[in-house]
């Protein structure tokens, strides 16, 4: 199997490990964004064609060998979704810290506060 | 559940997931040999059909413009959700701390550094407008340009101070800009219904490929999205900065 796919799988698993082992909500959100970046690597490497140019036909003739623009557009959507998810989770972390005085998920006791 | 039990459970689950992933990824076309029919079609059609030299932007703002509408409103609603989550609680009141009003927040930053930061604000805003408007020609478009523009306003905070940033971008104005951008994009789509036949159909003159005013509605959509993204990110950052610098518990 080719390296970029393995990198995507590795990022997904290592990000999940980070989420599970995290002791800090901010750290956990960063780990989630690493999980999401595995999808960018996967999408972009699926769309790659060897020896191809970027799909910008300003300085190369139409019909030249170019990489897949559709997955690149999808990656853009993916980035926007990540930004929104991270923003909302960080806001939740801010409020959790206000209420419980800690960012350690193990100490967020639902019975307190 | 103790940390140890959790890690053991994770190891078992992750092992299974890794096996499934490798199995699934092994079935993909080998790296560099992808031959998506849809991609080839877009690569051949984006210039002759839409006069857009950047195929990615042609996909985003034309071929699947309706999806981008959804994408844009994800951002819009999430910023609204963020504002609700970080609203002033009953136990809090807004009072700028001394740090918010001081000339700069970062100890040890020199006058030259701050002056340079403020000098960069103008060029960065211009760069953002350039990226917004040239989306159909070269890599870029509303989402990228919008984030660049918001970064320009963030520089005011870094170089000047938080209240300077708030004075330059009052909440009301930023909210209106964001809403105008979001509505503008939806209206471009509506224009397709009125002047052509379907929602988001490209209804403007296509122009010469490679010229600034080409590709019909794509630059217009891109500018609208750029405005919305700039507004959304400035709002998002100022909500967080408010938490650090303005909102205090009673």
Write the layout of secondary structure elements.
The complex is a heterodimer of chains A (113) and B (250).
Chain A (H helix, E strand, L loop, with lengths): L2 H19 L3 H23 L21 H32 L13
Chain B lengths: L2 H24 L10 H14 L4 H9 L1 H21 L6 E3 L3 H4 L9 H23 L8 H18 L2 H7 L2 H25 L22 H28 L1 E3 L1
Antiparallel strand pairs in B: 1-2
Helix pairs in contact in B: 2-3, 3-4, 4-9, 4-10, 6-7, 6-10, 7-8, 7-10, 9-10
Rg of chain A from C-alpha positions? 19 Å
Radius of gyration of chain B, taken over Cα atoms and rounded to an integer in Å: 23 Å
Number of domains of chain A: 1
Q: Quick one: overall form of chain B?
A: globular
Main features:
heterodimer; A: 113 residues; mainly alpha; Helix Hairpins; B: 250 residues
Characterization of the model:
The model of chain A has no long low-confidence stretch (mean pLDDT 87). In chain A, 65% of the residues lie in helices and 0% in strands. Chain A has a single domain (3-107), classed as Orthogonal Bundle (Helix Hairpins), CATH 1.10.287.3510. Chain A is an all-alpha fold. Chain A is elongated, with a radius of gyration of 19 Å. In chain A, helix 1 runs antiparallel to helix 2 (25-47) and helix 2 runs antiparallel to helix 3 (69-100). The longest helix of chain A has 32 residues, at 69-100. Chain B is an all-alpha fold. Chain B has one domain. Chain B is built from 10 helices and 2 strands, in the order ααααβααααααβ. Chain B is globular. The two termini of chain B are 37 Å apart. The relative contact order of chain B is 0.15. The interface between A and B is large, with 54 and 60 residues.
